[in-house]
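Work Package 3 (structural annotation) set out to generate three-dimensional models for the target panel prioritized at the project kickoff. During this period the team completed the workflow that converts sequence records into discrete structure tokens, so that structures can be stored uniformly alongside our sequence database. As a representative example, we reproduce one entry of 400 residues exactly as it appears in the project archive.
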Amino acid sequence: MSIVVIVLELVLSFTAAVCGLYAVAVLLERKSRFASKALIAAVIAIVLAVVALICTLFFPKTQGLTDDPQTPTSDGAGEADPTTSTTVPTASTTRMPTKTSTVNNISNMLVNIPAEHDIAKDSLVQLQELCSAYNGKISFYYIDLESGYEIEYRADRAYQAASVIKAPYIKYLLASGVDGSQKLTMAASDKQGGSGVIDKEPAGTVFTVDQLMEYAICYSDNTAYYMLNKKFGFSGFNQYAKELGITANANSNCVLGYPRPRFGYLSARDIGLYMEDIAKYIATGSEAAKRLKTWMMSTSEECQLTDAFSDKNVLYGKSGGAIVEGDSTQAIDLYHDVAHKYGDTKNIEWAFHDGAIVYADQPFVLAVATSLEPFSEESIEVFHEIAFQINKIHYAYHAK
């Protein structure tokens, strides 16, 4: 509404100015035959000026900008407008809280934990302050796989998916029972550049489907992913995503397909839902599931959430919520095994994400999606800080 008013004021003011200038010009040249037209122009100018003044007085143009969009809007590159709405996002594609902690009024934070459980509110506040400082460029989604409790921050915002999408795609292929021994020959036109290793091999090199899936996860290999897309397509995967409740592509009117778009969009919740489903698949213990877990624990880039959970020296005390250095008798080790898939791109706009299954004593999923500069020291520190605070909240909950 405010944009309409602004445009209307500009049009009215411009037209009034033109009419006024016309009337003045006629009067200065004293051309009597145009006197009636000059009078009409002057009257129109006055009327339009009055209408513009009324718009200014009764239709305010400014609204408080908040770090608070509900439904992401896309300019075609996965970047949402951080000032689209002033409504706190809700969990539209996952469990809704039946009894929510009183801390859920922290700006932009949705907390689905029963009110009788004390949680580390200081960590929630620090998370909100960290995320809001980046003006809409950070989202995260956490779910405790044991209890189903969730915490999320702007988890519905859509981002360019980047290579995070490769993990659920490979999981879909494995769960569908594809024959991993099938052989595919790499054509020169298959080479995609960017991340990966098999582009170095000459055209005509033969790979098994298993090898391509491994390369797509471990090295985030774009060419391996492309060859799998060309062979298996996206129709079944799109149906799988729909059944899982993935929404970012649908909200952005994007349907994944070959030859493109093969990456699309994801929200932090979408990444979290994919990772939760992958965790369930891994828990089946099948040989294919074991391979997927091994690949996701052996990636070429681990600077985000994997590194955040690899510090054996920082410990979280069970009592009092203090951080204890080196006292393992009254503290919980921050170190956890992590199966994850990262993604990054500088294509059109930045995207830097990580979705992780964290194998703590009570496993959980943490998905962080951002439009921060990939692999910068500042961006990596954001992932580490979110992981640190979520870990505190997770253990505070289970320590009760």
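Residues 72 and 157 are 5 Å apart (CA to CA).
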